[in-house]
Structure formats: structure tokens, C-alpha cells
Amino acid sequence: MSVLTHAPATTDWVTICPQERLEPEIGLAALLPDGHQVALFSTRDHHLYALDNLDPHTGAAVLARGIVGDRDGEPTVASPMLKHVFSLRTGQSLDDPHTRLATWPVRVHDHNIQIGTNPTTHASTRAEQGTP
Amino acid sequence: MEELVVIGNGMVGHRLVEALRDRDTAGHWHITVVGEEPRTAYDRVALSTYFDGATAQDLSLGELRGPRVDVHVAEQATTIDRAARTVTTTSGRVLPYDRLVLATGSTPFVPPVPGHDLPGCHVYRTIEDLDAITASASGARTGVVIGGGLLGLEAANALRLLGLQAHVVELAPHLMPAQIDEGAGALLRNLITDLGVHVHTHTASTAVEPGPDGRAARLLLDNGDHLDTDLVVFSVGIRPRDDLARTSDLKTGERGGIVIDDTCTTSDAHIHAIGEAAHHRGTVYGLIAPGNAMAEVVADRLVGGNATFTGADTSTKLKLLGVDVASFGDAHGRTPGALDVVVNDAASGRYAKLVLSDDATTLLGGVLVGDASAYATLRPLVGSPLPGDPLALITPDGEALGADALPDTAQICSCNAVTKGDITHAIECGSHDVAELKSCTKAGTSCGSCVPMLKQILTQAGITQSKALCEHFTQSRAELLEIVRATGTTTFSALIDAHGTGHGCDICKPAVASILASLGGGHILDGETATLQDTNDRYLANLQRNGTYSVVPRIPGGEITPDKLIVIGEVARDFDLYTKITGGQRIDLFGARLEQLPTIWQRLVEAGFESGHAYGKSLRTVKSCVGTTWCRYGVQDSVGLAIRLEERYRGLRSPHKLKSAVSGCARECAEARGKDFGIIATDTGWNLYVGGNGGFTPRHAQLLAADLDEDTLIRYIDRFLMFYIRTADRLQRTAPWIESLDGGLDHLREVVVNDSLGIAHELETAMARHVDTYTDEWAAVLNDPDKLARFVSFANAPTTPDPTISFTTTRDQPVPGPLNLGMPTPRTHQQESTR
Ligand code: SRM
Ligand SMILES: Cc1cc2nc3c(=O)[nH]c(=O)nc-3n(C[C@H](O)[C@H](O)[C@H](O)COP(=O)(O)OP(=O)(O)OC[C@H]3O[C@@H](n4cnc5c(N)ncnc54)[C@H](O)[C@@H]3O)c2cc1C
Ligand code: SF4
Ligand code: FES
Questions:
Q1: Which of B134, B412, B640, B786 lies at a C-alpha separation of 20 to 30 Å from B803?
Q2: Residue predicted with more confidence, B265 or B185
Q3: Where is the Rieske domain positioned along the sequence (chain A) (predicted)?
Q4: DSSP H stretches of helix in B360-500
């Protein structure tokens, strides 16, 4: 299983569940100590992804229940609410250039899935939203 | 930059701004539009679809946004100062112009009969008019339309759709006098009378009389008769809105209309007039095509071109109350020496007339009633030599003409003046489907009657049109089903590896899940199949706006014991669920959190309930009336049959949801004709109706077979449903599916009743397999720890409630608390299913 490595150097890791709990393409929600809700996915080719569980278009915390797939090769999840599609890698909405979800570092450690407590892309999200 | 002011934001004014925006690449013009209606331009031609489910939003022609365009709605232009070159509006705005365009359209003419302005008297022109008619029609029974022209008949159909008994009163000896001749009018009258509309021709209305409440109640006729009615719609013609032109001394026509020359310029060189307000060479056109042509001419001239308008085709084709009517060219045979060729077949309800030049070689025009399929090929041939024997062109078994018979100059889309040459050119430049042709040439974007022709031309150009399900599969749903059936594939990954590309998406995955399930693929949450399901199926419940779910236990036929009712009540009380009786004769419990679903269902399953599949593209309910058990009119046991059907087809996965109902007599209390398959009792058996639905585009089911005994009925339904499951498109309900079959309902009847394809046995066997292998999906989940493990709020806190979910209390029940992010907007304009 490959592991994302671009976590900030000072990342704290929270253990979520045993590795085998996360079935391919069936998302799970996780609750971080700071109250953030994260949607956790493993794809069929064994990549792990973690992004906001909150659907930005409706405010419901449901993204983990969406269908996983790809659009033009980009791994995606479709929100179950109104079917907006997001990149699993970057959190970018593929239907609305102005919307991007935060993503978190995620890894397998000692057969457990762990999420880094600092989002990977929060800073760049804000910056990108600022430019029209 | 120069200033252009456009008065009127109707269809033609809108087209002008679009056309100018496209051409004015140099940014020479700043455009200000003033429109008096409370909304921006909409598709008036399709206005009647408003009664068929279309919303004002669906009708809208789109925003005229842009840096150099200002649109002011709900504002009327009141004066033009030609010397100062300004326009003043009702809000006090004074708009200077270099050029002014009058696109003010027309108003319906209301004859000054006494009582014409009583409440309950209407016209039929704007969305507001339609809202007013709808309001008058509520609680009403009868409506009269005065005027039997094109619009009058549309209005009569609208009244029918509103559930009224409709009458049409027409002064002329036959219907649609402006478009069709007497023979066609007589046939049209028969066809329309058959549909239940009362037609009174050769009759004048002399007065509208009020009832005790002061509303229109009775229409007096010149033959001494009267009609009692709840509302009146005037549709006797239109008058160009030339009032502004008159008060500013522009030249107007004797019978109205702002006079324009071939450049669409009025008597003031700075002012143009276009659309229904304009009077060109003695004619005021009441159709969209000439108006659009004028708009294009003005747009061209504003950027320095020299286009001209020299007249237009007034051909029309319409489908009125389900009856095809078309007239084109010199339909009345007014050309000196013109010859007629007529086929008048009252028995089959067809009338066709061709008007030919005196030497019978050139087509001048024609009229078609009952079957207008030849219109698309005949109209473009007007003015050209006939390609064959004229009689053969209009007899049912005659030679059908294809697009290849047409010259390049033939007009394919008359609404938008697009020729066959324009279309073949667009195809050569890379437009490879109807949607692309529409956006590139505008052909097919107005009345739509030329779309079949566009498809033909595409096919002739050697282009096969895509039926691809999505970017991952080039096949259609029906083709994928055949592949799965033939190869015995049981998983999505095997299917996409062998026959698709990529990893799939939210379109192909649920579609394949449905295919696998309807071919008997085991539990829908088994193994990889779980990953294919839309969220409702994945958690066997319906997702709500705040992320909670609703729970709908099956209540077959709507029949339930008091004990079971009590269990539902107790579960709802214990889990604090909002409770509502649904439109499907059962009970819906709302507000369950994901992690609560298993415990709720544990209680329900123990009490003998099973899944109601409210979440699935599958059988929902079989509604029923009480029938012979209680009702003094009942002739058969409708409850018994409804329960038998619901238990037979429960859990059957299909391209879209399936609904059914059984009524115990012709009074139809169960609304069976609003269902995909509906059954109505007769004295000797059951009538089977198919293809009904409510929803976005309501349809009444049509009779498939009559007076069946129960076993034959069930055999036919088995065949009907399996044939639908095998051949329909994704998210295509039965009504559009039947329409899409070559041969429509008649073909379906051949297949289901007469087994014309020889597949009846196979379809019945497939259904028998479904019936034999059915198990309750919820009971199966409760017995499977792996599946149960997915019903948790958080992987690391399985029973902690989602903190974003909150409830408030309304009418003593819990409802979702306020959302934090405003109103949701769905992903695409294209109509997508919500579950
Ligand atoms: C609960 C209910 C309304 C009610 O309180 O009465 C309802 C509620 C929903 N309807 Fe409905 N419909 C309900 C009866 C109807 C009816 C009336 C009927 O069946 O007699 C219709 C029109 C008849 C028809 O379907 O032909 C109806 C036409 C629709 C449509 C439009 C379908 C169409 O072909 O245009 C949708 C959207 C869709 O399915 O794509 C829809 C979708 C929905 C969804 C599933 C929307 C969603 O995904 O959230 C709603 C979910 C309810 C839930 O969470 O349980 N609902 N819906 C009714 C459930 C009946 C039942 O017991 O199963
Ligand atoms: C029910 C119905 C069905 C039809 N079916 C067909 C069909 O099948 N085929 C076909 O070819 N045609 C059909 N027509 C006719 C077609 O809709 C018209 O030809 C077309 O809309 C004319 O466009 P227009 O812009 O000239 O007028 P309109 O669309 O009427 O637009 C004029 C606009 O100008 C506004 N206006 C007027 N005066 C002022 C002012 N002083 N200040 C500000 N705003 C003003 C009006 O409120 C209106 O919004 C149908 C019409 C109706 C009502
Ligand atoms: S449909 Fe007929 S049998 Fe059924 S309840 Fe109505 S009147 Fe009675
Ligand atoms: S002919 Fe009306 S849209 Fe083409």
C-alpha cells in the first residue's frame, strides 16, 4: 500500500481504524480532535485519500458516502447529495472552479490508518480562491 | 462606443441582442434593453408546456449578460423623443440612443363583446396569463376558448390539462382557417371531438354574462344557444403593439404594425422595428421565424453589413392535443392555375393535400392532418420540381422521402432559416451530434420539428450517433445488459476491464449495479457491488438534505393491521422520527441518523416489516382502492390483486422506479392510469394500462390489453416489465421508453400479447427467477456483521452523532435545523435523478 508523503514536517497523526476496516471504494467518515469531519477513501489501486466530509454545496457531512470513480483519469468522489464531483487528490471541485475541499495527509502505520491533524492544502485553497 | 436601445425583451428582442453580441467583436455597441414583463425573455412558442410541467426557469431563454449589455425588466418604455433621440421609461429613466429597435411584439385582441372584461375572462400570451388561468381553473369544471385557430386549440388543450371540460367556439366554418383548408378542417374537428373537446364552428359569441359571484358564468352565442362555463379564454387574433410608434409619428400600416423596409428600418432612419410589431410589404407576421430573420438583418446592419429581409415562409407544424397538423407554402392553392392532389381517409384519420403548379411539376404547398411525418421532407421542397409521383408522396405506403432527396438550398429548419447546406457544412466542420448542430447552426432550437431531419442528415454523412452511457462506456444501458447476459459477467470491474475504460463514475456504476441486480446478482451490498450503489441503495434508506435518512417499510396495497401501525408509532416515538403518510399509501419516518438505521430496522423486521425499497430504482408501491371488500361499486377485489402484485415484483431492480395501482371499478379511485402499470377492474376481468406517471412530465397510461383473467394479466405484466428492464435507457421511465420503441404502443402490444419476437417464455422465466430468489434486503443486512459494520457515524467514533445535524420542532415534530450554507444548486441543468 502506498503512502502519501507530502505531510508538513510537524504533523501529528491521529489513528482512525485498523487498515482492513477501510474497504476499497467504500468511504468512511472520521472525526478529528479539532472537530473537523474527514472523508476517508481507499481506491481499487490502493491509494489512500482524506478530504473534507462536508459537502460545500449543501452543508451536509456526507462525502464519505459518495461514489468513487474517475473523470478523465483523475480519481474522484461524487457527493451523494447533488452529485457534484471532487478530485480525491486535490479536493478541487471538477464542476465548479471556485470550490475546493481541504485534504489531509493520510498513511498506514502499524496496520492502522492515520490522518495528519493539519490539512495539506488549506493554505493554497484560500490563495487559489482569492484569484478570480 | 454607440448606444443601442431595444424596447421589448421578447423572443425577437432577445435574438437581436444575442446576434449583435456575436457579431460585434469590435465592441462598437453598448446595448440597453427595456422589457415590460417581470422577467427576461422566455420561449413563448413553448408557452403551453408550462401546463405540462415546464417551469418559468425551463422556458427562460437565458440571461443576456455581458459587459456591454444592460437589461431592465418590469419597466415600460413610455415615450420616444425622436429629435433628442431619447427613450423615457416608467421608472423615469431617460435613455439616449444612436439607434433604437422596437421589438414590442403584439397583444391578444379581445373583441368588445359585453362582459369581455369580467373576472374569469382571460387571454393567452404571457406566463402571467397562464398563472391567472390556472387560478381561475381551480375548482372549475368547464372552460370555453373563443377562437379555433392555432393558439385557440393550444389554449383548449391547456384547459384539458387543467382538468376542465373544454369548448372551442370558432366563427369560421372550420378550425384553423388561416392555415388549413375545409377538408382538413373537417377531419381535424373529428379528431379533436374524439378527444373530448366540444367544437362549435360557424358560431359567434355575443356576450359573456356574470354569475351571482360576479365572475364569467355563461357565454351567449349568435345561434340563440349558450354555454355555461367557469372561465373564458379569448384567442381571436393578435394586434401589433405599435402605440409607441404612433405617438411618435412613425409610419404605421393601415391595419396596424410599424412599417419597415427590406432593411427593417422604419420611417425614421435611426429606428428599426422587428418581430410581430413590424409591418413588412403589407404583412404582419405572427410567427417566430420571420421575427428571428428580421433580428439577424438588423444585427448585421448594425455592424456594417447589408443583409435584407424580403419575406418569410409561414409554414407551421404542430401537434395539437396529440393530433399532427401541418401546413406549408401556398396551402390554400391561391397561385393562379394551381392543382390539388388530395388523400382524405376519414377511417384512418389522415388527410393530405399537395398544391402543385399548373403543369403539375413543381410543389407549391400542402396541408397534412393526422399524420404529418412527410412535413419535414415536403416543406423544404416547396418551389422545387417534385422528385416523384405526387400521390405516392402522401399515401401511407408511398415512397417516403429522405433527406438525401433534398437540394442544399432546401430549408431544413424554418424557424431559424437553416438550409441543408448550412447543416452539411457544420457537420464537415466537426459538429457530430444533434446537440452540437443545435448550438452551431441554431437549427432545432425553436419548435424542434426539424430534429428528426437533423438526425437523418447526420446519418447520411456517415456519423453514428453516440449512445455512450458515460466517458467509461461507449455502450448504451441496453447493450451493456446484453453483454452482461451473454458473457455471464458478475462484477463491475470485470465488465469495465473488458468493455470499458477507467474506473467508472456515479453514472455507470449505479447503472451496472441495476443491471446486475435485475439479472439476479445476489444482495446489492455484497462485495464489490456495494461500491456501485448510489447512497440511498448503499444504506438502504433515502438520504435527506441534512445527511439523515428516511425509513419506509413496505405496506403492500396500503393495507396494514392495527398492531403493525402501533409498532411504527412506537419506533417513531422511541427514535424521535418525523412521521408522515406518503402519497404512495404508506408511512415514512424521517430523520434517522446513519448509525441508527440498523437498530430501527431490527425492530421493524421483528414486527414483520420488510424494506419498502423507497430508495431503489425498483418497484415502489402498488396502490389500491378498497374494491369489492367494502365499496358498493366495486366489481373485483382490488386490494387482493394489489398485494399479490406488490409481493410479486417487490425488489425488482429496473432502469427507473416502477409504480403501480389497482382500482376496483372504472371510478378509478387508486389513480391506476397515473402509473407505469395500472390495472382497472371490469365486469369480467381486468384492464391493463401501461406508461403512466406523475413527476416532471405527467402521462396517462394507455390501454395495453382488456378484460384479462388474473393469470393472463400477471403473465402480461411479467413480459412487459422484463422487456422494459432489458431494453430501456438508464433513468428512462416506461412512458418515454414506449415512445422510443419503433412502432410505439402497437409494437409493445405485439411483443407482450402476441409474442411477436418469440421471447415471451424467456421473459417469464426471468421474472420467475426474480420471484423465487427474492429476500428482504434489510433482514439480510441485519444478519451480516460485515455489512452492518458500514453503518457507523465515524470510523473512530462509531456511535458519536454527527455534530452538524440539528433539529428544531415544527407542528410538534422534529425537522432539520437551519443549514449553514444556503440553498443547494444541483450539478447540471440536465434533468438528473435525485436518487
Ligand atoms: C415520500 C414521498 C412524498 C410524500 O410524502 O408523499 C416522496 C418523496 C420523494 N420522492 Fe417522490 N415521493 C412520493 C411519492 C411520489 C409520487 C406520487 C405517487 O407515487 O403516487 C410521485 C409522482 C408519481 C410518479 O412517480 O410517477 C413522485 C415523483 C417523484 C419524482 C419524479 C419522477 C418522474 O418520473 O418524473 C422523483 C425524482 C426521481 O425519482 O428521479 C421523486 C423523488 C423523491 C425523493 C426520493 C427525492 C429524494 O431523493 O430525496 C423523495 C424521498 C422521500 C424519502 O426520503 O422517503 N418523486 N413521488 C412519496 C413516497 C411514496 C412512497 O410511499 O413510496
Ligand atoms: C401560446 C403561443 C404559442 C405560439 N406558438 C408558435 C409556434 O408554434 N410557432 C411560431 O412560429 N410562433 C408561435 N407563437 C408566436 C411567437 O411566440 C411570436 O411570434 C414571438 O414571440 C414574437 O416575438 P416578439 O419578440 O416579436 O414579441 P413578444 O415575444 O411578444 O415580445 C415583445 C415583448 O415586448 C414587451 N413590450 C411591449 N411594449 C413594450 C414597451 N413599451 N416597453 C417595454 N416592453 C414592451 C412585451 O411585454 C413583450 O415582452 C406562439 C405564441 C403564443 C402566445
Ligand atoms: S375505484 Fe371503484 S371500487 Fe374502488 S373505491 Fe373507487 S368506486 Fe370503489
Ligand atoms: S423548424 Fe422549428 S426548430 Fe427547426
A1: B786
A2: B265
A3: 13-115
A4: 375-378, 390-394, 420-428, 434-441, 451-460, 477-487, 492-499
Residue A107's φ and ψ, nearest 5 degrees, are -150, 165
B100 sits in which H/E element? strand B99-102
Sign for the CA dihedral angle at B235, B236, B241, B246 comes to: negative
What ipTM is given for this predicted complex?
Answer: 0.71
A36 in contact with chain B, both atoms CB, cutoff 8 A = no
B667-676: long-range contacts, CB 8 A cutoff, minimum separation 24: B667/B633, B669/B625, B670/B623, B670/B624, B670/B625, B670/B638, B670/B642, B671/B623, B672/B623, B672/B701, B673/B700, B673/B701, B674/B698, B674/B700, B674/B701, B675/B623, B675/B701, B676/B701, B676/B733, B676/B734, B676/B735
Contact B9, B71 (CB under 8 A): yes
pLDDT tens-digit readout, B280-314? 999 999 888 899 999 999 999 999 999 999 888 77
Any chain A CB within 8 A of the CB of B829? Answer: no
Counting Cα atoms < 13 Å in the Cβ hemisphere of B424 gives 15
Q: Read out DSSP for A53-110?
A: -B-TTT--B-GGGSEEEEETTEEEEE-TTT--EEETTT-BBSS-TT-B--B--EEEET
The answer to whether residues B651 and B774 touch, using CB atoms and an 8 Å cutoff, is: yes
As a CATH number, domain A13-122 is 2.102.10.10
Is-contact B550 B590, C-beta < 8 A? yes
Asked if residue B596 has pLDDT above 80, the reply is yes
Residue B799 touches chain A, beta carbons under 8 Å: no
pLDDT, tens digit, 9 for 90 and up, residues B789-835: 999 999 999 989 999 999 999 999 999 987 544 333 444 433 334 44
B-chain CB neighbours of A28 within 8 Å are: 792, 794-795
Give dist(CA A93, CA A100) in Å, integer. 5
Rounded-to-integer distance, Cα B726 and Cα B483, Å: 11
Residue B736's pLDDT is what?
84
State the amino acid at position B628 in one-letter form: T
**φ, ψ (nearest 5 deg) of residue B302:** -65, -25
Whole-angstrom distance, CA of residue A47 vs CA of residue B770: 38
- Say whether pTM exceeds 0.80: no
Give me the residue from B531, B545, B804 closest to A25, CB to CB: B531
Domains of chain A, residue spans: 13-122
Q: For residue B343, give the 3-state DSSP assignment.
A: strand
Q: Facing residues of B708 across strands?
A: B686
Strand partners, B354: B341, B366
Instruction: Give the residues across from B30 on adjacent strands.
Output: B3
CA B280/CA B261 separation, integer angstroms? 6
Check residue A103 and give its pLDDT. 95
- Chain B 528-557, CB below 8 Å of chain A: which residues? 528, 530-536, 538-539, 543, 545-547
- Ligand 2 center from residue B106 Cα (angstroms): 6
B550: left (phi over 0), alpha (psi -120 to 50) or beta: beta
Specify whether the CB–CB gap between B34 and B78 falls below 8 A.
Answer: no
Q: What does DSSP assign to residue B362? A: B
- The dihedral built from the CA positions of residue B3, B6, B12 and B17, taken in this order, carries a sign that is positive
Residue whose C-alpha cell reads 421575427 in the numeric block = B291
CA distance A52 to B230: 57
Residue B458: pLDDT band (50, 70, 90) is confident
Nearest-angstrom CA–CA distance, B32 and B84: 17
Question: Per DSSP, what are the bridge partners of residue B227?
Answer: B219
Contact status, residue B556 vs residue B643, Cβ threshold 8 Å: yes
**Burial of B830 (C-beta count, 10 Å sphere; 0-12/13-18/19+):** exposed
Cα–Cα dist A54/A63, whole Å: 6
